[in-house]
Amino acid sequence: MKELVTRLITAVIVCGLLYGSGLAMVNVASADENQTSSQQVSANPSPAGIADLWRAARMGAEGTTSSQSPFHGALINQYPAERLVYRSDYLAPAIMLSVFGMILVFAAFVAVNGPSRLEKGFSGVEIKRWSRFDVWLHWIGAIPCLILILTGLTLLGGRYFIEPWLGEAAWAGLVGFSKEAHDIMAIPFIVGWFLMTILWMKNQFLASYDFKWFLVVGGYLNFGPFKGKHPDAGFANAGEKLWFWTFAIAGGLIVASGIIMLFPNWVEPSRSLSLLAVLVHGACAVLIAAFTVVHIFMATVMSEGGMECMVSGYCDENWAKQHHNVWYDDLAREQKLEYRS
């Protein structure tokens, strides 16, 4: 009997302990559920709370983080979200059009109009137009510029127009090479842009006869009332001056924005400035690319004898008289013509 009572008491005590443990577990679970519910409420505030949060962020409120990078406290970007699509929806097709579109336009023009021939043919007498340093400077700027256009075209628009034709593996190799080449060629381009802008500026200011040059399209048209018209031009004609100032201004913006992107640790740009640099860089590249195509066509196909100027530094005397008569007459009057021996 005594043993039975002892077993009953032990069973009651064990049941009591189990019941108490069960209550405790239920209370803990309930507390955890309440805490989780509270966190969910905090993580999903009311619409008014969300509005207040974003309003504070846009007014410059900063958070805390262990990051030591520049602008680490900035919670969000301040620029409108639609700017993100400018690069893909506008600049990418624009640079493709500026290169390949202009090539097609000029190819068609040359096919219909033909090149601008020397009316009196080559004289066989050559006069100095550019110094050897100027010729080297031209190519120091021109070769990197061409490589930058091709690699920039790949980086800006290749994802949309080239990758679908190559596939992922080939595209990865091409874009990797383009990125490295673009960064390397940026340095000689900056040097060439700076020196050409400073040293060649003196001959690039507009004169009164330059407006007449535009009216007859430089005398390059071989039909109608424009045929045989050779407007006055100084050392640089009006078209070359337009190209120079486009290169100087747009090229300067390309250099400035490129430095921001190439040396972010040195410049430490904000997120908004970084995006602005990307957009400015792409927009100016579109302009430079289009003018470069025009410049190449005008110097090679369109102007008979024009390419020789940037190969040897000398030009045929008849070419100088026909395309840059004001410059030639000034040198002749001042007896400063230098003939090639």
Note the topology.
Layout: H1 2-43, H2 47-58, H3 86-113, E1 126-128, H4 132-161, H5 163-166, H6 168-200, H7 208-215, H8 238-262, H9 264-267, H10 271-302, H11 309-312, E2 314-316, H12 317-323, H13 325-333
Antiparallel strand pairs: 1-2
CATH homologous superfamily identity = Transmembrane di-heme cytochromes, Chain C
Output the strand order for the largest sheet.
1-2
Name of the CATH class: Mainly Alpha
Helix percentage: 55-70%
Q: Which stretches of 5+ consecutive residues score pLDDT under 50?
A: 1-42
User: Shape from CA axes?
Assistant: elongated
Number of strands: 2
N/C terminus separation: 139 Å
Describe the protein in words.
With 341 residues, this protein is an all-alpha fold. It has a single domain, classed as Transmembrane di-heme cytochromes, Chain C (Fumarate Reductase Cytochrome B subunit, Up-down Bundle), CATH 1.20.950. It has helices spanning 2-43, 47-58, 86-113, 132-161, 163-166, 168-200, 208-215, 238-262, 264-267, 271-302, 309-312, 317-323, 325-333, and strands spanning 126-128, 314-316. Strands 1-2 form a two-stranded antiparallel ribbon. α4 (132-161) runs antiparallel to α6. The longest helix is centred in the first third of the chain and has 42 residues, at 2-43. 21% of the residues are buried.
